[in-house]
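Key result, reporting period 2: structure in, sequence out.
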């Protein structure tokens, strides 16, 4: 009789080995190599930020809903379910994705793993706000590496669904940089601050930074307390911001006014509809 393989110290006892293989964190023979060990460490690093929010929702004793917007392969949703929801009787996770083939694969994996309180919807952001397949309020909204304006779509969805918590890891932000570039000559005559994005590499980096600043102001204007930190070492990017927003009160006029002043000063008023509403 063959002996069972010894446990891998890095893997939590409650973790599904089958899921980790499906997510390519474990190799087919159930082992970790250098790359997958780093990936597992990154997964746990992100989970450590989200677990307290889930615990707060679960402590209420009521059912709660988590939506992963722009879910892709629903990598994050599966991890959250496996590490937190699986051992509890309450809570649902919905992955929202526009690519039907990814939605179908996620449905098949959830069924295979017996993750009965996971659902996957093939919807656009507008459809996800209006669909009767989701409750009127979604308690926690996540968006992991939602590229360019997809992060803004997730914010719009979260605000429409009155989310208590919002967790965002943006990437590939090009819209603000493109607008800065488009109006560069005009901006040079308007404000000396245009020197911040005179050179192309600065345009890209400043545009990315400014995008997240405006997102934070939008959330603050809508009554959220915002924390911004760095998600160190996450794959696909040398640097990623993690934005965590918690609903704490009513609208803040000062945050809205600051966003309006920034857009005016930097000649970005054409983007007002995205960052002020």
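The corresponding designed sequence is given below.
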């Amino acid at each position: 009789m063959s002996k069972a393989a010894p446990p891998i110290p890095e893997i939590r006892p409650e973790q599904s080995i089958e899921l980790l293989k499906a997510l390519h964190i474990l190799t087919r023979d159930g082992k970790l190599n250098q790359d997958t060990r780093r990936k597992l460490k990154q997964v746990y690093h992100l989970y450590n930020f989200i677990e307290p929010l889930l615990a707060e929702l679960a402590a209420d004793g009521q059912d709660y809903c988590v939506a992963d917007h722009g879910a892709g392969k629903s990598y994050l949703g599966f991890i959250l379910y496996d590490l937190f929801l699986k051992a509890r009787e309450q809570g649902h996770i919905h992955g929202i994705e526009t690519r039907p083939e990814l939605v179908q694969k996620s449905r098949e994996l959830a069924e295979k793993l017996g993750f009965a309180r996971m659902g996957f919807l093939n919807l656009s952001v507008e459809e996800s706000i209006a669909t009767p397949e989701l409750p009127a309020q979604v308690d926690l909204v996540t968006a992991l590496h939602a590229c360019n304006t997809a992060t803004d779509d997730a914010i719009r969805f979260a605000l429409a669904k009155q989310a208590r918590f919002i967790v965002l890891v943006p990437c590939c932000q090009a819209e603000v940089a493109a607008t800065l570039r488009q109006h560069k000559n005009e901006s040079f005559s308007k404000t000396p601050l245009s020197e911040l994005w005179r050179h192309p590499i600065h345009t890209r980096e400043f545009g990315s930074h400014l995008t997240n600043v405006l997102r934070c102001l939008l959330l603050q204007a809508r009554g959220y307390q915002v924390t911004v930190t760095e998600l160190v070492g996450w794959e696909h990017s040398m640097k990623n911001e993690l934005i965590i927003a918690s609903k704490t009160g009513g609208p803040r006029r000062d945050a809205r006014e600051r966003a309006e002043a920034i857009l005016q000063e930097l000649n970005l008023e054409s983007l007002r509809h995205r960052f002020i509403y």
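The longest helix spans residues 34-59. The beta strands are 65-69, 92-97, 118-122, 140-147, 165-171, 224-230, 241-247. This case is discussed further under Risks and Mitigation.
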